[in-house]
Every structure is written in structure tokens, then in C-alpha cells.
Amino acid sequence: MREHIDGAALRDMVLCAYDALEANEQAINELNVFPVPDGDTGANMRLTLGSAAADLRRKEATTVTATADRVASALLRGARGNSGVILSLLFRGLSKGLKKLETATAAEYAKAMTAGVESAYKAVMKPAEGTILTVSRMAAEAANAKAKESEYFEEMLYAALEGAKTALDDTVNQNPVLKKAGVIDAGGYGYVLMLDAMLGCLEGRVTVNQNPGGAVKAKADFTAFATEDIKYTYCTEFIVRKTNTSKSPDLLRAYLETVGDSIVMVDDGEIIKVHVHTNVPGHVLTQALTYGPLMTTKIENMREQHTSLEEQAQTEAAPAAEETEPEEQPIPEPVPAEKAIGTVCVCAGDGLEELFRQLGADGIVSGGQTMNPATEDILRAVNLTPAETVFVFPNNKNIIMAAEQCIPLTSKKVTVIPSRTVPQGISAMMRLSPDSSPEDLQAEFTDALSTVHTIQVTYAARDSEFDGHAIRAGEFLTLMDGALVGSFASTDEVISSLGPAISPLDPEFVTVYYGQDVAEGDAQSFSSALGAGFPDTETCLIRGGQPVYYYMISVE
Q1: In 42, 46, 107, 452, which residue has its Cα 20 to 30 A from 371's Cα atom?
Q2: 519 and 488 in contact (C-beta within 8 Å)?
Q3: Where are the alpha helices (DSSP H) in 260-371?
Q4: Angle at 212 between CA 209 and CA 214, to 5 degrees
Q5: Strand bridging mode 413-416 / 387-393
Q6: In what order do the strands lie in the sheet with 387-393?
Q7: For residues 280 and 303, what is the distance between their CA atoms, to the nearest angstrom?
């Protein structure tokens, strides 16, 4: 056994942790409480750690400090969803605890784990026990206790793993929502898998995957043509897990042919793997989501790559220079302010994008349920907004923390309005007044959130039971303000169930946003039937074009 680790060992530990998340992504996702894909914890953790794994594979490891800094920097920019942000915070604190170290002893690493836990707890406004926070805290406590008894790194990490497992088993009792569903915490489970893989790496029972992503990858040969000859800018690759088996994959192939070329599409019955060159990757991913949740995504700018590959070749041919700071992916510098106030809104669906632009949004970030954008995606939109103060509307509870991570990363003043749904974001944006002060606008925006109730109609991904409700796969799953209304076989049943839910609110306005899988005629019938139950209420129908949700209904 070893008494310390160097940068190379830490690099391999992180890469093995990523491989574990990749291999168990769906198992983590299936611990979601609701049958609807709600947060995609496994996907978010994998994509977040994947940003660091990609960076680590590009360079040789040096010191523990340099490796930890590179991981923390990549995770901060690539964080997706609450679980991904918390994971990035754990590694950010870890990197601070490993500062100025060539190698790290068991005691030093255990102490750095505690620094990571403290960083995560400080950043979460209302830390909830029975989550990845609890699991990581108890792991760090066990690691520090063992480090006082033993100088061996493996024994310290084994103690951390056992502490994490004990905490994970108890999450079902600590968190009321988990207890109702009878499951352990998804994020905590992912963290345990990571610790086990990191220990396995040191013990030699787990090795780094030397061929990530499979044996065959469809990639463009960027050196075969000039930059100006590239017709489609973005090389887009993704894998979709098929949950909507009633929709033919041939429809997706036909759509891809209208928006791109170099198409490689494989349908093996359970997943669809796609490679395409296109100028509208966001629209492509939106179409893909109609078949099920995204398992992996990768979007590369081929024009940028063509230039950088030549520069990379020249760099690799030159003598290796001493490594200094970790290399970061380029983020545009903040553009000069041309006005006092700017806004950035997160949403999915071309109709919703257009609506937010009409309301005055300067930047639109593509994302939402099952498709959480990374912190760097939001940061890019913030930096490109020509304003002194930029308000960000996440419009999803699982994107709020990722948006908040932008605050220290830019010279612009960023204020995150904690909109948990798209209807909340729309209601808030309707109060946008460029002549108001940032303080007054923040108060107005925040007040608007409390005036909106959101109903979401989606599909049940699997049979289950929650809080006394029997849920069957393929039925219309209806949520109101995040609470389950029920699972229904038809939209008529959905409408009947919404009457008792909406009536006590005495609404003045009801707005129905219909998704990309809903025909306009069906949407009109749905809206009319719903509005008939509230003759004194103004009912409006708008095409949102959103994936995942057949209908989003704003009640004000």
C-alpha cells in the first residue's frame, strides 16, 4: 500500500470515477422519485465529471495541485444540474485543500475532502440531509478518523467509502420524499460509485478506460478541407435512450437530412446513436428528446477545430514547455455594456425562445428538463449580453445552482432570479422595464414568481406508485407546482382532474403552452375544454414547441 499519491495517480482516480458514472448512468437515473425523467442525476453527474475527464486525457499529469486545479476548473464550467454543481463544489474545495502539494498523504487528502464538503454546504442555501451532501460529509469524517490511525492511502479511502455507504443506506430515512418512494438518494449513490472506483484504481482492480466512447466513433476529418468549405459548423453526437417506442426513428433520420449532412444513425432497439453535422444543434437535440432522455451529448465547432488542430500540431512538434496553469476551454470575454439591464433566459422549444425574445431577452440558452445546460453555456450567454447587470432566468429548479455559479466567473453583475418553471420566467419577464433600477427589477421579478402556478403534463416513463397514486407507463403524468396530480389514460381525464386543482386559485388568466408532439388542432381542443370550466377566466393558447411536456399551463 502507498503512503501518498502524486498527480498521475489522482488523474487516474478521477478518470476511473468518470468511467464508473458512465457505466452506471441509467442506474443512477432510475433512482429519480418520479417516473418522469426529473433531474437526470446520473446524466448530470457524468456530463459534469466528463468535462474534467476530457481535459485530463489531453495532458500529462504533473503535481497533485495542478491535477486537482484542472479538475476543479473543468467541473466548475461544465457543471450541470444540482447534482453536477454540488459535485463541482466538492472538487473545488478539494483543490483548495491540496494547494502547493507535489504529492498528498492520506491525512492531507482527507483534510482536503473536508474542505470540499464545507465548500458545498456553504454554497447550498438550504442544505438538505439525506442527499449527496450527507454522503460526502460522512465520507470525509470517516476518512479523517482513519487518517489519524493509519498513514496508508488505501485504508483512508476505504474508510471513506464505508462511511459513504452507511450514509447512503440511511438517506431513505432522512429525506421524506425518498422515504415515500422507497429509494436511496441518486446523487449519493453516484458519489459512492465514484469513491469505489477511485479506491479500485489504487488497488489495481479498476483500470482507466483507454478507449472512451466505444471502439467506433464517427468524426469528421478536419484536415481534409479548408475552413471556408465547412458548410455545417457543428459536429453533433448524442445517444438517446428510447422510451417513446411509438415514434418511428425514421422520422428523426428524415429530419436530420433537412438540417445537416454526414449523418450516421444507429437504432439498436433500446437506444438511438446519432452523428450529424449541422448549424442548429439545439433544434436537433430537441427533436431527439421526443424519443426519450439524452444519455450522452457532444457538440464541437468544426470551424474552430480546424484552426486549433493546426496550432496543436505545431505545438506538439515543438519541445514540451513546462506546464503552468490548467488550460481552459475558451469562454468569450464580457462584451462592453451598451445599456444598464440585460436578460438571459433558459428554455427549450422554438416557440418559447421566440416568446422570450419578444419579451426582451438578450440571450437564450437552450435547455430545460432532461437537458440541463452547463454553467459555461449560461456564462457564455451572460458575457455576450451588452449590459452592466444581467438577470438570468433558469426556468427550472435543477438549473438554478448552475446559473448561480456564473456570478464569480464574470466581471458583469449577475443576478439569478430563481424561476423554477418557464411560466414563472415568462411572468417575470413581462415586468421588464429597462428604465427601472436593478434593485427594483429584482424585487419585481421575484414578486412575479409568487403569482404563477404551473401545471405540467408529460408522460410516465415507467410503472410505479408514488404517494398513493398508481402510475402506468405511457400515461399522461400531471404535476402542479411540482406535486403529483395523477396519471391519466386520456387528456379528457387530465382536464377533469385539473378543474378541482385550479378552481380554488380563482385565476384571472390561464395560458396553455403546447409542445412539439402536440398537433395544433388537438391543442385547441384541449385549451377550449379547459377554458370551458372557467368561463370568467381569460384562456390563451400559445405554441411553445417544448420537448418532454405535452402541455405547460400557467395559472395566474
Answers
A1: 452
A2: no
A3: 281-288, 302-317, 350-358
A4: 115
A5: parallel
A6: 363-366, 339-347, 387-393, 413-416
A7: 15
Q: What are phi and psi of 245, to 5 degrees?
A: -80, -5
Picking from 424, 503, 490, the residue whose alpha carbon sits closest to that of residue 457 is 490
Q: How far is CA 255 from the centre of its chain?
A: 25
The alpha carbon of residue 415 and the mean position of all alpha carbons in its chain are separated, in whole angstroms, by 20
How deeply is 82 buried, as exposed, middle or buried, from its count of CB atoms within 10 A (0-12, 13-18, 19+)? buried
Q: How far apart are CA 191 and CA 198, in angstroms?
A: 11
The residue whose grid cell reads 498523504 is: 105
Q: Which of 35, 18, 473, 44 shows the shortest CA–CA distance to 296?
A: 44
Question: In whole angstroms, how large is the CA radius of gyration of the chain?
Answer: 24
Query: Dihedral sign, CA of 383, 388, 393, 399?
Result: positive
**Do residues 79 and 405 make contact, with C-beta atoms less than 8 angstroms apart?**
yes
pLDDT at 250: 85
The mean predicted confidence, pLDDT, of the chain is 85
Q: Rounded to an integer, what distance in angstroms lies between the CA atom of residue 127 and that of residue 467?
A: 24
Q: Which three cell numbers stand for residue 269?
A: 432497439
Locate 13 and state its grid cell.
Answer: 482516480
Contacts of 309 (CB under 8 A, 6+ apart): 222, 223
Rounded (5°) CA angle 350-353-358 = 125
Q: How far is CA 437 from the centre of its chain?
A: 32
Region of 485 on the Ramachandran plot (φ > 0 left; ψ -120 to 50 alpha; else beta): alpha
Rounded distance between C-alpha atoms, residue 3 and residue 46, angstroms:
30
Q: Which three cell numbers stand for residue 369?
A: 428538463
Task: Give just the sign of the alpha carbon dihedral 165, 168, 169, 170.
Answer: positive
Q: How far apart are CA 363 and CA 342, in angstroms?
A: 8
- For the chain, the straight-line distance linking the first and the last C-alpha, in angstroms and rounded, comes to 63
The SS3 call for residue 18 is helix
Report the C-alpha gap between 190 and 283 in whole angstroms: 30
User: What pLDDT, on the 0 to 100 scale, is given for residue 223?
Assistant: 42
Rounded distance between C-alpha atoms, residue 433 and residue 341, angstroms: 9
Distance CA 402, CA 550 (A): 26
- Residue 135 C-alpha cell reads as 454522503
List, for residues 287-345, the tens digit of each pLDDT value: 888 888 887 777 777 666 545 544 444 444 444 433 333 344 467 889 999 999 999 99
pLDDT for the residue 268: 64
CB 334, CB 413: distance < 8 Å: no
Retrieve residue 522's grid coordinates: 388537438
Highest mean pLDDT among 255-264, 349-358, 479-488: 349-358
Whole-number Å distance between alpha carbons of 29 and 43 = 7
Q: Are 487 and 470 in contact (CB under 8 A)?
A: yes
